[in-house]
Design a protein that fits this description.
With 95 residues, this protein is of the alpha/beta class. Helix content is 37%, strand content 21%. The chain has four helices and five strands; from the N terminus they run βαβαβαβαβ. Strands 3-2-1-4-5 form a five-stranded parallel β-sheet, sandwiched between helices. Helix 3 crosses helix 4. The longest helix is centred in the first third of the chain and has 10 residues.
Length: 95
């Protein structure tokens, strides 16, 4: 079965859990719009083939499906006030 994606999947949080997940999605051909508050991690994902967002707000504005992999809820809460995606998957690790 082939699924056609008209907008990139948004991915916020490219830390120890998020980065390998995002890379695997890019590797299998998923159009991905990624962002991390540390720009070097976003650019590394861009080098692997993802689109790099300028900020989290761009991810929310351009994606209907967003995966959040981060420790702090504040960043996504600000973005959600502007535009809620059709589907948001939120994963949080504990330390």
């Amino acid at each position: 079965m082939t699924v056609t994606v008209s907008k990139p999947v948004g991915f916020i949080g490219l830390g120890s859990m998020g980065e390998p997940m995002a890379r695997n999605m890019v590797k299998v051909g998923t159009p991905l719009l990624g962002w991390n508050r540390s720009p070097s991690k976003s650019h590394a994902l861009g080098a692997a083939g993802a689109i790099v967002a300028t900020d989290a707000g761009e991810v929310f504005a351009c994606s209907d499906v967003i995966i959040l992999m981060r420790q702090m809820a504040l960043q996504s809460t600000r973005c959600l006030r502007a535009r809620a995606p059709a589907l948001m998957i939120e994963c949080r690790g504990t330390r």
